[in-house]
Design a protein that fits this description.
single chain, 181 residues, 11 helices, globular
Length: 181
Amino acid sequence: MEDYTSEDLKAWYENFRVNSNTKSENVKVKSIYDIILRNEYTDSDYWYMGGGADEFIKYLQSFNIQDIKDLEKDIPNWTNDQLWILRQCLVYGYREDDNHKKSNTFKNQSYLLTFLFSATDDEDIKIDVFESAEIINDGDPKPLELLLNIKKWAENKILNSENLDKFHFEQIEEAIKKTSR
């Protein structure tokens, strides 16, 4: 079978780390970033159907609280394309496992998705995160400041007659109630 990978893409795979934006010294953060960076120019289907999100989540399973904090600190260094991939991984990784929502990994996925909303200025990523509000609500209570940021953004969009799904708005409101209890 003939290899249809372009010469530019082959060069990328061989030298992908020279394009790294990570500033983290944390080995686990570097590993998870490498997954994204190495496959940044792979077809988007890879992230939700091709196993990319599951590979990402497999690494996320080993993260402790300090690793999550280190990842939070590093996310602002990432490109918008890398943040889009991060969102794909957080939304699509291991969703078919019934017990997954009870795991610490899901709690981290849910929290990081909430954090990602505040860490980006990209409106498309914000909309995608908002449309995943059930994942935010299904996890543990989140910092109120992060949830209120999402709610304020959504209210502004609704006031400007932008079509946002009421279900997602209700999920954010429910997450706020959960945090306020």
